[in-house]
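INFO  loader      accepted 1 record
INFO  loader      residues=219
INFO  predictor   begin
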Amino acid sequence: MTMKLYFGPGACSFVPHTLLETSGAAYEPVLVKLHKQENLGEAFRALNPRGQVPVVVDDGQAITQILAIVDYLDAKFPQCNFLPREPRERARVMETLAWMNNTAHPTFTHVFMPYKFVEGDGEQAAVKAHNAKLFRGMLGEIEAMAQKMQAEGRPFLFGEHFGPVDAYALTLMRWGGFAGIDPQTFPALWAHVQKVAELPAVKRAMERERLQLNVYKAA
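INFO  predictor   done
INFO  writer      dumping tokens
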């Protein structure tokens, strides 16, 4: 049975999308139109009652949540070295992924969809502005990771191999444009995500999702 990936264009499901493309394994990418709320429909909720992407289905079993999916794909395709084998280094990657997913990602959600949290135009504008400032600081943290990577001569944020942190960093940097953040204000990170975007597997995922890397527009 062919593995399936349920993804939303531009969403965090981009992370496992790039990993599956990197693996070279056969899988079926299934587009979920988030803007049409297909993720809230009965068919999708049968896979994930929370109505969220990504979902990976393998051998008829659904796996949800970024960290669980990344761990699963790393175990399934050990030759790809998506995660380090040394326990402490592996923990560093997982703690960074967890922070990206449970802190940086929700902060951006407050920028992109403030109506989920408060009512009223004024209140929503305040939520958006406050969280855009917080999100800029979080991109600054990833910029420091990229600077350290450059200083140590590593090709990727956590070593010699492309991995989920690199894919998530690209996603967050791209989202920054929607938050009014010029990616060029983070030169090390911007250089890194441009390089990552040129990897054949990442390029295929971006083409399938029809993603533009730099969505920033000057005011």
